[in-house]
Design brief:
- In chain A, helix 3 runs antiparallel to helix 4 and helix 10 runs parallel beside helix 11.
- Chain A is an alpha+beta fold.
- The longest helix of chain A is centred in the middle third of the chain and has 37 residues.
- In chain A, the strands form two sheets. A five-stranded antiparallel sheet of chain A has the order 4-3-2-1-9, with no helix packed on it.
- Chain A contains twelve helices and nine strands.
- Classes of the chains: A alpha+beta, B mainly alpha.
């Protein structure tokens, strides 16, 4: 800072400088982005969603597994393994839940099942043949649990290793959970985006017509909406799914045919409020057709609430999809969906909790992110709506 | 008031009629469904269906017959199980489901209202932030995830509560918590925002100005008005509890309505799906009706048209 003399400079006031705008001008979109990006939760949600989309789109190319490929030798394998050192080659063995042995490489890659030799009932040993050396599972000591013993009867060294072949482990048919999770993300996101988009279109059309025409037409149209929304929408979706037979398309049809009512209500309310304003009157005076008034003047003015409602539809759609899959109305096997994955994992929850945690975490994370984005967008697009 | 009630009753029946018509038409459109001839069924079931639904008659007569059956609470025979009727399914499952639902409603109200109040009074403080964080969790996490997580933690890991069944009171704890999760969170948030709004109004300032204690202001003046939105949401809450019970009953293996519904979906037991849907719809429409009437009674500001 200039310390000589006065710290204040005299500002020259000229004719031209009076008219200039000192601060940088921001467009509406920049304003919205500014408000949106000031919320850590909203920004975090957006980052997670982008990551999720990448995970779903690119992920399956990276994992090296497919969602349907079964490997019955590697069933119910968790992401973290107890590895028993066998031989001197730095190789390990992993004891599966159905008491088989699988050879592991030093960094935790699953190699091949170790062939079963025989069971010694008197010494309570299950003996396997590892390249000529016998390795046995010792189940004689109940309190110590199952142990692996070498040829001389000594207990082998054990350590914990991460599963490198299947990062999140495998399911009850030996399919890679990570890949299935990615395909589940594909299903969930596709269903959610398409359903939200269709609901958006139907809702805007229905609500626009109802709100703009008003009067008896509005009365009848809104009574229809009332009737539809009295019953929990899940019941309709279930009925429609039963009729269409489960599958990817029917979920979208079922979701799209029901959830537009909230959008229609929002659009109608907005249009009712806007259509009495002067700019609509002005448009009408110069002979603009009703269609153009709705499409060019009214809808753009209520875009904020519409976008917010559409964003909020996405988590609902994801939830309903996983709910339907969970009660057995979702995508059909072997296709993976987060709901079906949860359902499949339910029965073996006690022994293989990892199969349940992965899809459950994915669902929660996604729901959180979209809800946070929705909240952020609501405050950013329309600060008046903030509660 | 009488006019309003009459109008609401009329709407209620119109809604129910629409539901029955819709369900009937949907079920009719299924190839191999309950009302078509092209299917393979046990002879006894086939005969029962033909007899029951008068399948040779034209469509509208079949519909009238079905509605006539509904009027005397006869939902017809099961499509999959010989000699069983949909009424029996409901009679078996409904007591447990309604008990579960009632316990959840009580649990929700006893927990959500105080939590919402605390959150509103301590607005912006750590209590508020904590409660709102938990409420966001409750709203975003699907009930089946909450249920399985609770089950894993309390039944398998800690072993405090039974995994399945409701043979003891303990068995109800996890299902009720899991079932209430969403609505509990929702009503807590609603209570908070509603109370915050009321507390900012002029009459609250007046009440404070005339020297009432903060408790009196809260309990006598603010709460009464703040509770109104909660009353309106009770109908939809019941709806979400009912549909939520599908998965909860499945996870905890409780022999209620929900599990019958899910099983009949899996079995494609069309008449049972239809009957139970209509039964659910009737309960819900009736509940929404009662709540609406109640709402008008407690809030004199609502204009009756």
């Amino acid at each position: 800072m200039d310390t000589n003399g006065s710290p204040w400079d005299r500002l020259e006031i000229g004719d031209d400088s009076m008219e200039t705008i000192a601060s940088e001008q921001r467009s509406f979109a920049q304003d919205v982005w500014y408000r949106f990006s000031r919320r850590p939760s909203a920004l975090g949600g957006a980052v997670v969603v982008v990551a999720l989309v990448l995970f779903a789109v690119l992920g399956p190319f990276v994992t090296g597994h497919t969602y349907f490929e079964q490997n019955l030798a590697f069933v119910n394998i968790p992401p973290r393994l107890t590895a028993w050192a066998i031989g001197d080659s730095g190789r390990y063995a992993y004891m599966t839940q159905n008491l088989k042995l699988v050879e592991l490489s030093g960094e935790g890659r699953l190699l091949a099942p170790i062939p079963f030799a025989r069971e010694d009932l008197s010494r309570k040993l299950i003996i396997f043949d590892y390249a000529g050396t016998p390795v046995s599972i010792d189940y004689s000591d109940r309190t110590a649990g199952l142990r692996l013993v070498g040829p001389d009867g000594s207990i082998l060294r054990s350590r914990r290793l991460w599963n490198r072949s299947y990062l999140l482990g495998t399911d009850s048919l030996g399919r890679d959970l990570l890949t299935r999770l990615m395909y589940g993300a594909r299903i969930s996101l596709t269903v959610a985006f398409i359903a939200a988009f269709i609901n958006l279109i139907i809702g805007i059309l229905y609500g626009g017509v109802s709100g703009y025409l008003g009067g008896n037409v509005d009365n009848v149209m809104m009574r229809v909406v009332d009737v539809i929304s009295t019953i929990p929408l899940t019941l309709y979706v279930i009925l429609i799914m039963v009729i269409l037979d489960s599958g990817f398309l029917s979920i979208i049809v079922a979701l799209s045919s029901v959830y537009w009512v909230s959008m229609a209500r929002v659009v109608r309310g907005q249009i009712m409020a806007l259509k009495e304003q002067e700019f609509v009157l002005a448009a009408r005076t110069i002979g603009t057709s009703p269609l153009a008034i709705v499409a060019r003047h009214l809808i753009p003015n209520c875009l904020g609430p519409i976008i917010v409602t559409a964003t909020m539809l996405i988590p609902t759609a994801i939830f309903v999809e996983s709910f339907m899959s969970f009660i057995g109305l979702g995508v059909s096997a072997p296709m993976a969906s987060w709901g079906t994955m949860c359902n499949d994992a339910l029965e073996t929850m006690k022994s293989t909790p990892h199969q349940l945690f992965a899809p459950a975490t994915a669902i929660c994370l996604t729901m959180f992110s979209f809800n946070f984005i929705g909240d952020g967008l609501r405050d950013a697009l329309d600060p008046k709506m903030r509660k | 008031m009488a006019w309003y009630v009459a109008k609401r009753v009329a709407t209620m029946f119109a809604t129910l009629f629409a539901v029955v018509l819709l369900t009937f038409m949907l079920m009719h459109s299924i190839p191999g469904g309950p009302f078509t001839a092209e299917r393979k069924l046990p002879d006894a079931v086939e005969q029962a269906l033909v007899k029951k639904y008068n399948l040779d008659a034209p469509l509208h007569e079949q519909f009238i017959d079905y509605v006539r059956g509904l009027l005397v609470f006869d939902l017809g025979p099961s499509f999959k199980y010989e000699g069983r009727s949909v009424n029996e399914f409901i009679a078996e499952g409904f007591p447990l489901s309604s008990r579960l639902g009632l316990m959840s409603i009580v649990f929700i109200l006893f927990l959500a209202l105080p939590l919402g109040c605390v959150s509103a009074i301590k607005s912006g403080k750590w209590q508020d932030l904590l409660i709102m964080f938990l409420a966001t969790l409750g709203i975003t996490i699907p009930s089946f995830v909450i249920a399985t997580a609770l089950m894993y933690l309390f039944s398998y890991r800690l072993g405090w509560l039974p995994v399945f069944g409701v043979s003891s009171v303990k068995g109800y704890v996890l299902p009720v918590i899991a079932l209430s999760g969403y609505s509990l969170a929702f009503i807590t948030r609603l209570m908070r925002s509603s109370l915050l709004e009321v507390m900012g109004q002029d009459y609250i300032r007046t009440a404070r100005a005339k020297g009432l204690s903060e408790t009196a202001v809260l309990v006598k003046h603010a709460m009464r008005n703040a509770l109104l939105p909660v009353v309106t949401i009770l109908g939809p809450t019941l709806a979400s509890l009912l549909t939520g019970s599908f998965v909860i009953e499945k996870i905890f293996a409780l022999p209620g309505m929900g599990i019958h519904f899910v099983t009949s979906i899996a079995n494609r037991d069309y008449t049972a799906i239809m009957g139970i849907t209509i039964f659910y719809a009737t309960i819900l429409v009736a509940m929404v009706f009662i709540v609406d009437i109640f709402y008008v009674m407690i809030d004199p500001r609502i204009k009756l048209q």
